[in-house]
């Protein structure tokens, strides 16, 4: 009996530690920090011109996009692998043709495509990738356009943290249960067994 | 159980005294939570080799954790062990049917290895949540980096243990422990400065021997050979492993000295 009591005591201490680690992960998953902002405006976006911004994203990242443009403009949000996006984005400014060429590539995912205006938050990215927000003037007139991008970082990726936190909580509760049961039994039997 | 495993009995008493509820639970929370506050760096540090990124993030996230671990070891060993001698607890333990070597091992586990295990837990939680793919891809770098991180804790801890066993008085042992910890830091900084100014190869080797993690960081290009580096060229990978093994050998020598003193000369009076 004594051995079971001691083993259950060790288990409950380990279990409580697992619960505390689970709590730490859960608390960290609630914390979101602002990592950067980007804003761009133009009063003259010529036909076939594009204003855009791109940033690296990963599982922890939340991107808030606000974009607007005049008549004939289309707002695109693309997610592309860095090795495909960077060679196109780094050497020269994008235009409508190069943007379409990028969109036509196999691994490039169009997250959103909206005429004139977009206000949306993107999160839950899988692996490290490039998010590109572009306003393309596909009309025949010069127009105004502007975009803002706010990048936020969650301390731990939501999916992984939820999974880890839940698993650790369950492990903690399982490890704690023998001690709790012993204590309950002792209470039920009265002081002579305590 | 008590009759069969007296060493376990002593370990249980020791753990119950040093890690009362809810200290280990709160420590588990802090050790898991604190490195996660550096998570945003896992994404912003994109330049350089993947190994460099992994090591640098580990090194940055474990800074305060290592400091807390050293404080914990100071409390357990420099103050706790020496105080136990003064209070007569060690004398009582020596009446148990256990060898002195076993008693020494029990003190090593509860005083140093458990705090070191918290560092492993902390890095484990951090990498599993933020860099699982990177950590799995470069498991060897993760393990070597973790060993190098632990070396930064285990070497000063070995000096503190030796001092506690020899001095046997709580206050004095604590003061000597803190002094040794700082002295090691000062020696490290001096080697860094001398190496940087003169470029003497032996000084650079000595610096990397005391800081094997720095050697790994330089080897993988996580930190450049800038003005605050010890000078000289980039160490080779086998050099990094040799520094790490050398560091552990020095630690082991100090632990062995403490053990020999405890077994042969130690008089708990």
Question: What does this entry look like structurally?
Answer:
The complex is a heterodimer of chains A (about 190) and B (about 270). Chain A contains four helices and eight strands; from the N terminus they run αββββααββββα. With about 190 residues, chain A is of the alpha+beta class. The two termini of chain A are about 10 Å apart. Chain B is mainly α. Chain B has one domain. The longest helix of chain B has about 30 residues. The relative contact order of chain B is 0.13. Classes of the chains: A alpha+beta (about 190), B mainly alpha (about 270). At the A-B interface, helix 1 and helix 4 of A face helix 2, helix 3 and helix 7 of B.
Structure in a nutshell:
Chain A is of the alpha+beta class.
Main interface: chain pair and counts: A-B, 31 and 27 residues
* Number of E-type strands of chain A: 8
The tally of beta strands of chain B, per DSSP, is 0
Shape of chain B: globular
**Tally of helical segments of chain A:** 4
- Element order of chain A: H for helix, E for strand: HEEEEHHEEEEH
Strand order within the widest sheet of chain A? 1-8-3-6
Runs of chain B with pLDDT <50, length 5+?
none
Mean pLDDT of chain B: 88
The topology string of helices and strands of chain B comes to HHHHHHHHHHHHH
- What form of chain A results from the Cα inertia axes? rod-shaped
Strand content of chain A: 35-45%
Mean pLDDT of chain A: 89
CA distance, first residue to last residue of chain A: 12 Å
């Amino acid at each position: 009996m004594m051995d079971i009591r001691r083993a259950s005591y060790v288990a409950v201490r380990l279990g409580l530690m697992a619960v505390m680690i689970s709590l730490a992960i859960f608390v960290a998953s609630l914390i979101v920090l602002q990592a950067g902002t980007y804003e761009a405006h133009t009063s003259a976006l010529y036909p076939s011109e594009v204003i855009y911004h791109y940033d690296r994203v990963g599982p922890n990242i939340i991107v808030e996009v606000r974009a607007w443009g005049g008549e004939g403009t289309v707002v695109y949000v693309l997610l592309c692998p860095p090795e495909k996006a960077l060679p196109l984005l780094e050497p020269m400014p994008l235009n409508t043709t190069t943007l379409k060429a990028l969109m036509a590539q196999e691994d490039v995912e169009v997250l959103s495509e909206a005429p004139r205006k977009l206000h949306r938050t993107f999160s839950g990215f899988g692996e490290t990738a490039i998010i590109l927000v572009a306003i393309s003037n596909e009309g025949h007139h010069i127009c105004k356009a502007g975009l803002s991008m706010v990048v936020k970082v969650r301390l731990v990726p939501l999916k992984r943290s939820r999974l880890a936190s839940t698993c650790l909580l369950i492990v903690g509760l399982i490890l704690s249960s023998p001690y709790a049961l012993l204590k309950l039994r002792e209470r039920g039997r009265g002081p002579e067994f305590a | 159980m008590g009759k069969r495993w007296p060493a376990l009995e002593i370990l249980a008493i020791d753990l119950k005294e040093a890690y009362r509820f809810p200290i280990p639970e709160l420590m588990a929370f802090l050790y898991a939570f604190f490195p996660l506050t550096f998570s945003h760096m896992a994404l912003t540090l994109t330049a350089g080799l993947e190994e460099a990124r992994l090591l640098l993030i580990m090194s940055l996230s474990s800074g305060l954790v290592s400091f807390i671990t050293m404080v914990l070891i100071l409390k357990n060993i420099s103050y706790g062990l020496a105080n136990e001698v003064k209070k007569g607890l060690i004398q009582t333990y020596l009446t148990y049917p256990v060898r002195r070597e076993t008693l020494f091992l029990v003190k090593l586990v509860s005083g140093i290895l458990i705090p070191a295990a918290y560092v492993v837990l902390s890095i484990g939680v951090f990498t599993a949540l933020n860099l699982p793919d990177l950590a799995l891809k470069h498991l060897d770098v993760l393990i070597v980096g973790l060993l190098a991180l632990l070396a930064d804790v285990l070497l000063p801890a070995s000096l503190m243990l030796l001092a506690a066993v020899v001095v046997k008085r709580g206050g004095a042992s604590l003061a000597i422990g803190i002094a040794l910890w700082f002295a090691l830091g000062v020696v490290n900084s001096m080697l860094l400065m001398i190496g940087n100014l003169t470029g003497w190869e032996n000084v650079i080797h000595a610096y990397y021997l005391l800081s094997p993690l720095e050697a790994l960081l330089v080897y993988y290009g996580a930190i450049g050979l800038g003005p605050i580096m010890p000078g000289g060229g980039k160490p080779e990978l086998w050099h990094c492993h040799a520094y790490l093994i050398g560091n552990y050998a020095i630690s082991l020598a100090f632990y062995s000295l403490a053990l020999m003193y405890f077994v042969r000369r130690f008089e708990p009076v």
